[in-house]
């Protein structure tokens, strides 16, 4: 069975006016900044299948880490020298780790669900189960030890993101055909919407935590069906203040943010050039620059 990225299925769940499809060839997508801020891991399907790549944040020393034919889920850093990614097939997933130097590829976990997201300490994962119209989150060990359901499937949820202290989880939730970002405790309690973005701006998804755990960066998709746009927004969790970054009215997409550890910059994917590339901008939206070439 063909393996499918979570992002593509998330796009299927909502209307085309909310999420546009990326360019046919992604030079770079789903960036993840390393804990020391020196590298960005990302996906690229330039060779036909999605593979995990890494590049220095100044755009040098790009390296392909994987070469297998399966489609990969987005990468995550286990530590500053180790990258994790997963393969999902028939609603079962295997979790792998590989060293920054493209060495020591090994399987580190296996769960009966989709797209496992490892915790910052690398000991637990959150994965998704159930039909795509009513997904549920399950928390477990890397090999599905002590699985515990976190959400009940009454609404569709995806793209969970651990807070740096592992006490909270941000995620995308779909209610009445509208997407918002929510935050809940790591045990599934106290779910609260946090993306108070004006309705006319669009729908929020793909949350990413800042290193101090006080801010989220999210992707907001809007625009008309024939002219879709997407922006990165930041949300201050204490004040609920939301800021739109690098505002534009052009039909291109700025998506899937990832914070630098010092909180001064954000990596993201954008098709500003006509195909998806990895970009970096300041946390206030100024000075966007392309990293992949």
Please, how many domains? 1
Order of strands, main sheet, comes to: 1-2-3-4
* Nearest-integer average pLDDT: 91
| Rg calculated over all Cα atoms | 17 Å
Class from helix and strand fractions: mainly beta
How much helix, percentage-wise, in residues? under 10%
Could you give the distance between the termini? 32 Å
Task: Map the helices and strands.
Layout: H1 6-13, E1 29-33, E2 39-44, E3 51-56, E4 63-64, E5 76-79, E6 82-89, E7 92-99, E8 106-111, E9 114-118, E10 124-129, E11 136-141, E12 148-149, E13 156-162, E14 168-175, E15 178-185, E16 192-193, E17 203-209, E18 215-224, E19 227-236, E20 242-244, E21 254-259, E22 265-270, E23 277-282, E24 289-290
Antiparallel strand pairs: 1-2, 2-3, 3-4, 5-6, 6-7, 7-8, 9-10, 10-11, 11-12, 13-14, 14-15, 15-16, 17-18, 18-19, 19-20, 21-22, 22-23, 23-24
Keywords:
single chain; 293 residues; mainly beta; Neuraminidase; 4-stranded antiparallel β-sheet; 1 helix; 47% strand; globular; disordered N terminus
Explain what the structure shows:
The chain is 3% helix and 47% strand. The protein has 293 residues and is an all-beta fold. The protein has one domain: TolB, C-terminal domain (Neuraminidase). Strands 1-2-3-4 form a four-stranded antiparallel beta sheet, with no helix packed on it. A hairpin with a 2-residue loop joins β5 and β6.
């Amino acid at each position: 069975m063909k393996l499918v990225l979570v992002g593509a299925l998330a796009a299927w769940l909502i209307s085309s006016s909310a999420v546009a499809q990326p360019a046919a060839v992604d030079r770079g997508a789903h960036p993840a900044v390393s804990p020391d801020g020196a590298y960005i891991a990302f996906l690229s399907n330039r060779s036909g299948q999605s593979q995990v790549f890494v590049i220095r944040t100044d755009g040098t020393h790009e390296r392909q880490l994987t070469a297998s034919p399966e489609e990969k889920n987005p990468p995550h850093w286990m530590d500053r020298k180790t990258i994790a990614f997963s393969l999902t097939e028939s609603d079962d997933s295997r979790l792998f780790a590989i060293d920054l130097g493209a060495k020591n590829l090994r399987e580190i976990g296996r769960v009966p669900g989709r797209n496992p997201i490892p915790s910052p300490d690398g000991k637990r994962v959150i994965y998704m189960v159930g039909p795509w119209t009513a997904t549920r989150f399950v928390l477990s060990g890397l090999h599905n030890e002590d699985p515990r359901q976190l959400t009940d499937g009454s609404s569709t949820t995806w793209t969970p993101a651990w807070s740096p202290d592992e006490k909270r989880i941000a995620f995308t939730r779909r209610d009445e055909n509208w997407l918002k970002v929510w935050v809940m405790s790591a045990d599934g309690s106290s779910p609260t919407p946090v993306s108070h973005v004006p309705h006319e701006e669009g729908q929020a998804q793909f949350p990413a935590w800042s290193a101090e755990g006080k801010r989220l960066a999210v992707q907001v998709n809007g625009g008309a069906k024939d002219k879709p746009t997407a922006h990165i927004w930041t949300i201050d969790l204490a004040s609920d203040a939301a800021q739109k970054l690098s505002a534009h009215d052009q039909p291109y997409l700025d998506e899937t943010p990832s914070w630098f550890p010092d909180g001064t910059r954000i990596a993201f994917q954008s098709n500003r050039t006509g195909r998806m590339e990895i970009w970096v901008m300041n946390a206030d939206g100024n000075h966007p620059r392309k990293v992949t070439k």
